[in-house]
Design goal:
single chain; alpha/beta; TIM Barrel; 10 strands; 14% strand; globular
Length: 329
Amino acid sequence: MIKLQNNTWQHQLRDAFKSIPELCDYLELNTIDIGSIQAQQNFPLRVPKSFVENMEKGNPNDPLLKQVLPINAELQTVAGFSDDPVGDLNAMTETGVIHKYHGRALLINTGSCAIHCRYCFRRNFPYNDYQLSKQKQQNALAYLQNHHEIKEVILSGGDPLLLSDNKLAELISAFNQIPHLKRIRIHSRLPIVLPARINKGLIDALTQSNKQIIMVVHCNHANELSYEVSEVCQMMQLAGIKLLNQSVLLKDINDNVVELCRLSERLFEIGVMPYYLHLLDKAQGTAHFEVSRAEALSLMEQVRARLSGYLVPKLVQEEAGANGKTVVF
């Protein structure tokens, strides 16, 4: 029996690290040597302590730290990188609804995240222009209701699990009234970076659904998978929620065969299926994370040689205007 965590995730979110000196002081690092205040001003730092606790103190090259620390490389303007690398704005058919692919549509309810990943493909997304008022949310739900080809709704953001339990329960109730919807897919980083969010109230809100619930978590490195993360993944499995993982291939973070294999093995141990490994979406400010397609293919050949087939995630790339993700490997 898993002991449910107290509903303290809001306090943990409030107490997240929000400045480079504060974070570096906790990690016993010299602020002068690493980090960029200007990059932080362009895209604020935010990282929960529960995630920071998985970092190695005194190590400026920690793979988890590199995912969240603002650095000067973000300030470079690089050709081929843009503010909307996957064409979200052109695919927005209704405020908050991104309908790119046949049979599924994505609903954005919040622009907020518990953690600001520096490689985020929506780091420059104009969330303030697409806030869902009560009326706009009704319009978004009507769009889903009127498009019978949509079998799956995807909750994204921002991070949809930052919505309150009551708000999520309202959405689930609305989806229950749309008979052609078969599945609700939730894309969230919170089970990994703020596991306290996965509590009884959230589980109760999700399991009132008459649709199949899929939780796609986002983990890039095995060091992110703490005991607490393992516990909440087990909790979701016991509630009948299917768990998948998507990662991003990131230079000097997980771009080696040992770490990719370790990640897949550890995910499977805690009941999460490796699903996608994304080539970097080319958002301006993220070029220093890019791993070339050729390097990625070489890595995947090595991973496939070491792991059982079901542990090998699909290497994919999202391209603006395409009918679906491009499977690279």
